[in-house]
Amino acid sequence: MWVFSTAGCRWLGAAGSLAVTLGGWAAGTLPVRGGWGLWEPRGSTPTVAGAILAYLGLTLLVAAWWQYGRLLRAGADGRVGVTLGWWAAPLLLAPPLYSADVYSYIAQGAMVLEGHDVYGAGPSVLAPGELGHDAAASVGGHWTDTPAPYGPVFLVLAQAVVKLTGGSVVPAVLGMRLVALGALALIVWAVRGLSDGRPGALWLAALNPLLLVHVVGGLHNDGLMIGLMLGGVLLAVRGRWVAGSVLVGLAVMVKSPAAVALLFVGIIVARRCGGGVRGALKGLLPGVVAAGVAALATVAAGTGFGWLRTQSVAGTIHTALSVTSDLGLGLGLLVADDPEPVKAVVQQAGLVVAVGIIAVLGWRAWKGRLDPTLGLGMSLVALVVLSPMVQPWYLLWGMCGIAAAGAWDGVWGRCLAVASAGLVYETAPSGHTPAYGFALMAVAAVAAAVLLRRDTLPRTEPGGGRAHGTAPAQAPAPPVPAPRRSRAGGRRTGTGA
After folding, report:
1. How distant, in Å, are the alpha carbons of 108, 109, 127, 453, 489 from that of 131?
2. Average confidence (pLDDT) over 437-460
3. DSSP labels for 367-409?
4. 402 pairs with which residues across the strands?
5. Minimal CA–CA distance to 213: which of 225, 201, 226, 222?
6. How many angstroms separate the first and last alpha carbons of the chain?
7. Residues 6+ apart with CB under 8 A from 153
8. Is 485 helix (H, G, I), strand (E, B) or coil?
């Protein structure tokens, strides 16, 4: 059927994206004030109808994406870049979707312009008449009095958007969406370069509904961090490690988890020098370059070095997706009157385990047993899983790296595709996390897992015979081509194994 072709998927996904946008105009994360009469609540009936439309559109988008991946595995010529344009375009004029974080970004940029200490106070300090006051009114409750956990590079961008738009909510949101589109372009460039142009890599990384709704629709700065980080890795792989280290340093000055990339960029540099003591010493240089970039960016931005002390503020907010927070809270309720100390110990233990996993993956990459880009992606997934605060879009940190390494159709890539299909439902278009969101997440993930398993098992006739076109049970395995040498001196596994 036409609808199951790549062209049909392109149209189906675009229709889904349009429905998400139209539903978002009634049920999105609308501003409390300053919506210009466009992005404003319109009563309970339109809100419910808009939410239903957005969920239906999201389901169409996920279904189109999943079928698109099946076609790419079968060797179809997907023209992923064209499809990405079709699916992203309807989201450009949408209000903020699935999160109120963009209002924090705008308010924090305004705080810098108004002379407030963005690392010492939250958006609530913005008084009536100051730039960003309307945006501050729409900041989520947890973040109203929370200092910014972001680096000065991102705050400079937010400051520029506020200055150009006068802090008006609608133009400022659209300005931040231009930043998000730039981030998407960086991701596409980096993933395409690192994966040697594999369409499947872009399918998992850039075409993923989890990225589209949370980076383009939700405007999360995680997209910018990922784009700069992977761009730096790409330049390092191509032998331009100084420029690559600069990009990674800029990524760290957006969000600090990008610092993990410095380990693997250092390994790329060290292995290019032949390893040994000399290689190990040279492998430290990317960290030195990135530290210099961080210092210069901080001084140039004029925001101070307060970002060094605010990196843990997000961990104080409990999110149900954090395994260590849930486990720590449960243990704390069982063994103590105050569960918070026990919870903190478990959270710290999770981070220690994550560091250990990253060290092991780094060692394997150093020994040439693991592609550095794949090692970076796996490390960031481990960091997210064991982090004290986890949001659905955090999975993109490592998933884009795994896709870029060419492992989009391996064990890791398939597991992350299933997780993406589920996590995209966890948050409502309004930015809230309702109980039914977890139910929808579970149903979508199970459905994706069943479909994936069905696709990977040989089909059989009703009478027990093998379906036409499937291989006999004892058919010899095709010859396995020798793994090609990666440009970093290791081997590309392509499977995540």
Report:
1. 10, 9, 9, 53, 51
2. 85
3. TTSS-HHHHHHHHHHHHHHT-SS--GGGHHHHHHHHHHTT-TT
4. none
5. 222
6. 35
7. 250, 253, 254, 297, 301
8. strand
- Token digits of residue 80: 């992923």
Following DSSP, what letter does each residue of 283-318 receive, concatenated?
TTHHHHHHHHHHHHHHHHHTS-SGGGTSTTGGGGS-
Measure the CA–CA gap between 55 and 49, rounded to whole angstroms.
Answer: 10
How deeply is 170 buried, as exposed, middle or buried, from its count of CB atoms within 10 A (0-12, 13-18, 19+)?
A: middle
The per-residue pLDDT for 2 is 52
The token pair at 486 is 């990666």
Helix (H, G, I), strand (E, B) or coil at 466: strand
* Tokens encoding 207: 């075409």
pLDDT in the model for residue 338: 87
Give the CA angle between residues 91, 165, 168 to the nearest 5°: 80
Give the whole-angstrom CA distance, residue 263 versus residue 252: 13
State whether the Cα torsion 80-497-247-385 is positive or negative.
positive
Separation between Cα atoms, residue 220 and residue 99, nearest integer Å: 8
Chain centroid offset of residue 282 CA:
30
Token pair 């105050």 is found at 338
Burial of 70 (0-12, 13-18, 19+ CB in 10 A): middle
* Residue listed under structure tokens 């605060």: 389
CA–CA separation, 287 vs 280, rounded Å?
12
CA dist 414 and 496 (Å) reads: 10
- Residue-wise pLDDT for 362-416, tens only, equals 999 999 999 999 999 999 999 999 999 999 999 999 999 999 999 998 899 999 9
Question: Half-sphere exposure of 304 toward its Cβ, with a 13 Å CA cutoff?
Answer: 12
pLDDT at 458: 52
User: Is the CB of residue 120 less than 8 Å from the CB of residue 147?
Assistant: yes
- CB burial readout 323-360, b (16+ within 10 A) else e: bbbbbbbeebeeeeeebeebbbebbeebeeebeebbee
pLDDT of residue 142: 78
Per the CB < 8 A criterion, the answer to whether 215 and 223 are in contact is yes
CA–CA separation, 121 vs 260, rounded Å? 28
Separation of alpha carbons 143 and 131, rounded Å? 18
- Distance of alpha carbon 420 from alpha carbon 447, whole angstroms: 12
Compute the distance between CA of residue 216 and CA of residue 209 in angstroms, rounded to an integer: 10
- pLDDT band at residue 210 using 50, 70 and 90 as cut-offs: very high
Distance, C-alpha 8 to centroid of its chain: 27
Return the closest-CA partner of residue 222 out of 304, 99, 308.
99
pLDDT at res. 5: 87
